[in-house]
Please model this.
Amino acid sequence: MNPQDLAPVLIGGAWRPAAAVDAFSASNPATGQTLAERFPVSDWSDVDAALDAAVQAFAAMQMLPAERLAGFLRSYAEHLEARAEDICATAAAETGYPVSPRLKDVELVRTVDQLRQAAAAAVDPGWRLPVIDARAKICSVLEPLGPTVVFGPNNFPLAFNGVSGGDFAAALAAGNPVIAKAHSSHPGTCRRLAECAQQAAQKTGMPPGTVQLLYGLRRPDGLRLVSDPRLGAAAFTGSRTAGMSLKTAADAVGKPIYLEMSSVNPVVILPGALAERSQEVVNELVTSALMGTGQFCTNPGLVLLIDGADAQAFLAAMAQRYRSAACGTLLSKGTQQGLMAGIQALTRAGASVVCGNQPAARPGWAWANTLLSVSGQQFLTAAKALQTEAFGNATLAVVAADSAQLVELLAHCEGNLTGCIYSAQDGRDDVLYDAVARVLRPRVGRLLNDKMPTGVAVSPAMNHGGPFPATGHPHFTAVGLPAAMRRFTRLACYDNVRPHRLPPILRGSAAPGRP
Amino acid sequence: MNPQDLAPVLIGGAWRPAAAVDAFSASNPATGQTLAERFPVSDWSDVDAALDAAVQAFAAMQMLPAERLAGFLRSYAEHLEARAEDICATAAAETGYPVSPRLKDVELVRTVDQLRQAAAAAVDPGWRLPVIDARAKICSVLEPLGPTVVFGPNNFPLAFNGVSGGDFAAALAAGNPVIAKAHSSHPGTCRRLAECAQQAAQKTGMPPGTVQLLYGLRRPDGLRLVSDPRLGAAAFTGSRTAGMSLKTAADAVGKPIYLEMSSVNPVVILPGALAERSQEVVNELVTSALMGTGQFCTNPGLVLLIDGADAQAFLAAMAQRYRSAACGTLLSKGTQQGLMAGIQALTRAGASVVCGNQPAARPGWAWANTLLSVSGQQFLTAAKALQTEAFGNATLAVVAADSAQLVELLAHCEGNLTGCIYSAQDGRDDVLYDAVARVLRPRVGRLLNDKMPTGVAVSPAMNHGGPFPATGHPHFTAVGLPAAMRRFTRLACYDNVRPHRLPPILRGSAAPGRP
Model:
């Protein structure tokens, strides 16, 4: 293995050959073919160097006004737009997602919008919640935590990428250098994004090490990284298994880690909505569930109905649509294997296959659109197993015997990112809605009415978070600025500190701010 | 063991005999004598019943307007004031603290003030950070997490008591029922406080189970409690060993737990301050270090100086004061053993005893005021062991060779609640101040100038928190309202939810709030 044949890593402001212990390539999911570009798995010495560089960068960044961070983020957005063709073509080859309408028209637009929103949030100091108690000579403010590592997921190669996505933008805008760990399924995309970031960093005079990129790490090195004393925080989006390993390592040394791990996103369709607009809801549900081959964190993987003729007709219409809809490409061989294993876990726990669960008639990584169902009674006997996430184009319908059982089912739901309730417009579901919402509300980060969960608007009011195991802590959100930035801060209090030594934001003798 | 001979537990709004598996008594630390009142160690069935009652209470509390919570907190404060004599006499017998000036004049005043501040914070809805995005029809707000267990420490029988202190007030004001776990060294105080709380709860019509009290738990039951699915969150103040056990259990299931575990609270005295006002600083330091026999979370346990004639004179003056000062009472036999073990860990790691470290000439639990010292060079070889908390009236002075070594020493400091820097008034320390502050700032929750750390003002700007291992997460504070209340909340987002179904605070179509 010649390091010169491998893509370079970005450490301390320079692209350099990795201290490689292994190498890997991505593959094109639409064909299954291995792509040409080869990427290194780094030795710990690369991680060590990146941490040292990040510590230096952080010290320098703390001296910079917020406007400089904002300038970098805006410049980065421009560089991404200028290189959109190349980036999206690479992402398409590595993910199987279409350049249009997905990557260029939607995801890149979202990505640059997030970077610009983060730039705007960075310069509006209210996000740091300054509190000045002039009488007691005590004041406090949120300050950046320090070097942040971001592990991006497989399913958003741009908008949640460790080197360009929501966690990156939030951590950077809060004042922290970012060490991005590329996802192994789209390393070429990460490389191109990081090239843009580094160009923007140089152009705007950011310290070397503001943005760094590593492609592959050995598992023990990943655990060591999230618990390293030099690190400020970690952010991870991915599988529950990988997330829990990192969480355990970080928790043991009290290192903040923000995780988005898994979610089946229950959708409850009340009888009145079924009677009133069954076809409309089927359309919305199928569109949401199969969009992007179901590979969304907020994919509606669990649908709950109350048994009856309407519910059976609804499921029949769903199955009809699942059978006739084109079957999309999955992100990787591992994604396909994970989906098949998830479906198997559901059937083992008592779910019946209504349609699908067979090879798809297309090349590359794919599996037939799969609809499963289970009775409410059966769900109650194996609630945990029946909440296994089958990440991809599979959906489990749970048919409750009656209203009381529906509420009972929801009481067995784990923490999720979202929960949706469809109810009649004429009010006939309102009593049941209240009972359902009361149980569902504390189990989800975002509660929706009459709307599927897959659109995660970049709104200051958004919560892309939720109770464990959807995330590691229900107080924080990964989307929505400036709230997402606060994850990467600590509360810093100044008591009797001489005024000229205070951070500028705390210098005024103004009336106490909103605490 | 007859349950009728043991103090009753408070579960579900009623005082009832415990399902006792063991029993214990407190002792009077000033005499070493066992006190008469006997308290149960509960079986899990008591915990189970308390959790069930708390779930019921939480459901009912969510229907109440914030004014009802505030009314309860104010009524509770009044009941405490009415029963001040009895409560303070019991606390004095159990802790050795004087009724005056400590318990009645200071700590009870602080306790009722906190309860009233929490009442005021509860009814000012801005603390919940509502954000309304009217255009996107998305809004979010912090909502209470649910039943909260509070483990109070030994050293503040009133102001940090699980059933009356800061965590209690914050969790309750945020809308959560509290299960208090009494500290084993002052169960009688806890009982009397909880009697007041229960009277206030009844008077103000709070749901049964709003406040509950258990005295003793077996260790596995404590771990089971903080990881129980019915629990919303846990708060703990105490030793690092106990805190880490609870943290590990809670983290494993993603249950929020807020811990305050240990802190040596470095105090750095720069050369100019020594030259300018050595005697004044000695006075402040010795008063702070020996106050309450050193039994404060923010006790200055680690003093850092730069070697020289002034530093040696400072230490000699300190030693002189330590020898001549009356030796106070320690909270329990366990506290004395812990102090002795802490001192032993420090001497084993190379610290020399300047004075003390011998039995005190008084009855009950006590140990001579102890001053230790170590060179900067030695500190660097055993930095971790030399940060062992010797909880009580012991202080370690570290004498750095020069300015550069002083800064290096601080770079080896673990996370602490506080850090203090004394510097000259005439500016001659300012360059060194900057170097010291840069290293100390990220290692402490509260940075002080020219002031000792032991006073924790109940200010909205206060941070009584800090990086691990002082606490479990550097984003949160245990003192300072409303920030402390936010610990006991989760972020709840509503997306397209019909307006009449929104919580009242989110109903307005007002312009977006400050996110």
About this structure: Chain A touches chain B through 74 residues (CB under 8 Å). The radius of gyration of chain A is 24 Å. Confidence is low (pLDDT under 50) at residues 510-515 of chain A. Chain A has two domains: 3-26+33-261+473-506, 266-449.
